[in-house]
């Protein structure tokens, strides 16, 4: 009887915790599905950086407060689009920031595969990489940069006072950044977004996973170059 009472009490406490999380969302009828989508997306992003399944689940429960079941091996873009259909803008921003918090806890630079999964999540949730760039600066993480031999953030500082992102804004010529995206002359914000999406589809690291190390490295370098140019241009072009 005592054991049964403890078990029932544990079940009630777990259900109450999940209920509190779901009550934070504005459509209770879709909350279970949305929680499953969120948990699976976070699981995919965490494990893509080499974290074990068990540790990823612990982080999701501890940091995100989600106890929903997860599905592994998902396509981040399609699942994030589904989440966006069920979520408000506030909930979409919460998911992106939570994903950033979870990977920012690393002590080493974030692997490129994990960062591209984060980019896919940001796009599919309806954001552009200027939002991700701001979160990256806020939480202080850097991703592996094959074009720069994966040097840590400290190696990119000028005298330790200026972040790489801010220094880029100060030093790079706008025309040079546009040329990185294959744009000559002037451009609108929408043209920059459209051109970047075409380029990132061509140079996404996942397209080169079965090729030589040299080809993978070249694709990663190009991906990093166009992504950084894009992030800076979006901060400059706010029309």
Detailed description of the structure:
By secondary structure, the protein is mainly α. It contains eleven helices and no strands. The protein folds into two domains: 1-144; 147-239, DnaJ domain (Helix Hairpins). Helix content is 65%, strand content 0%.
Helix-and-strand structural type: mainly alpha
Q: How many DSSP H or I helices? A: 11
Strand content: under 5%
As a whole number of angstroms, the C-alpha radius of gyration is 20 Å
For the secondary structure, the number of strands is 0
Low-pLDDT runs of 5+ residues are 1-28, 146-170
Mean pLDDT: 77
Task: Chart the SSEs and their pairings.
Layout: H1 2-23, H2 31-47, H3 53-64, H4 76-86, H5 89-104, H6 112-124, H7 129-139, H8 164-171, H9 174-180, H10 189-203, H11 213-236
Helix pairs in contact: 2-3, 2-4, 2-5, 2-6, 4-6, 5-6, 5-7, 9-11, 10-11
Task: Compose a concise summary of this entry.
By secondary structure, the chain is mainly α.
Notable characteristics:
single chain; 239 residues; mainly alpha; Helix Hairpins
């Amino acid at each position: 009887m005592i054991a049964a009472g403890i078990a029932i009490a544990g079940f009630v406490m777990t259900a109450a915790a999940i209920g509190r999380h779901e009550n934070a969302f504005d459509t209770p009828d879709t909350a279970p599905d949305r929680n499953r989508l969120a948990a699976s997306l976070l699981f995919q992003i965490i494990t893509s950086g080499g974290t074990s399944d068990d540790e990823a689940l612990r982080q999701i429960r501890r940091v995100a407060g989600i106890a929903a079941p997860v599905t592994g091996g998902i396509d981040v873009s399609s699942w994030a689009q589904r989440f966006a259909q069920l979520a408000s803008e506030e909930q979409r921003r919460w998911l992106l920031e939570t994903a950033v918090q979870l990977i920012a806890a690393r002590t080493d630079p974030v692997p490129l595969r994990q960062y591209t999964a984060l980019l896919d999540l940001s796009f599919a949730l309806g954001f552009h990489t200027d939002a991700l760039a701001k979160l990256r600066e806020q939480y202080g993480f850097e991703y592996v940069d094959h074009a720069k031999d994966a040097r840590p953030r400290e190696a990119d500082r000028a005298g330790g006072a200026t972040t790489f992102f801010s220094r880029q804004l100060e030093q790079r010529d706008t025309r040079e950044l546009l040329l990185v995206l294959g744009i000559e002359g002037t451009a609108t914000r929408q043209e920059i977004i459209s051109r970047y999406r075409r380029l990132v589809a061509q140079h996404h690291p996942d397209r080169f996973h079965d090729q030589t190390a040299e080809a993978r490295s070249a694709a990663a370098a190009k991906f990093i170059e166009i992504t950084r140019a894009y992030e800076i241009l979006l901060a400059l072009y706010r029309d």
